[in-house]
Request: fold
Amino acid sequence: MTRIGATLLCAAMLATSTAAIHAQDSTARKAPSEFAQSGPIGGTFILVDQNGKTVTDETYQGSFLLIAFGYTNCPDICPTTLFNMERALDFLGADAAKVRPLFISVDPERDTPAHLKEYMSSFGPTFVGLTGPAAHIASVAAKYGIKYEKVANSTGYSVDHTAAIFLMGPDGAFIERFPHDLDPAELAARVRRHLHANGG
Reply:
């Protein structure tokens, strides 16, 4: 091999090695807003609803669930997510009665049942806000691949978190995960297909 050829080969190997290291670093520094779930999605939980009542996953068995995670002080993503869910239910018409929308807080320190009740009143009457002990929130969030963490700011803190909408079946089984900003008409169409395909 010529000296020029050897130099080019070494340069290529170095570039490949550097790219691999950067890729590993990027993977290791995933933002909390990214989806992080490699196993089954969903599972059991024990939480408290906006009326102060203890509820579990079994409370909602028999209904399809549209589930989103967030917090009431969220400035834009959470209201957008809930608005899209509300509009999707409007598009579903009579089929909306088969779906229960749930909003699970990742900020239980501030999102008390009373505060959640006031917040959820801005959306449809079937919407349910859930909170609970920090350990219970962490448990259910992990089961849905939700990552979240407090971020200090000038007013105290915000919460960086995964944004997504989950559709769960009447038996609690995972059906589909949607982008939080999916067009409401498209969200309704996809939910309706699942309702009919799963006997709803």
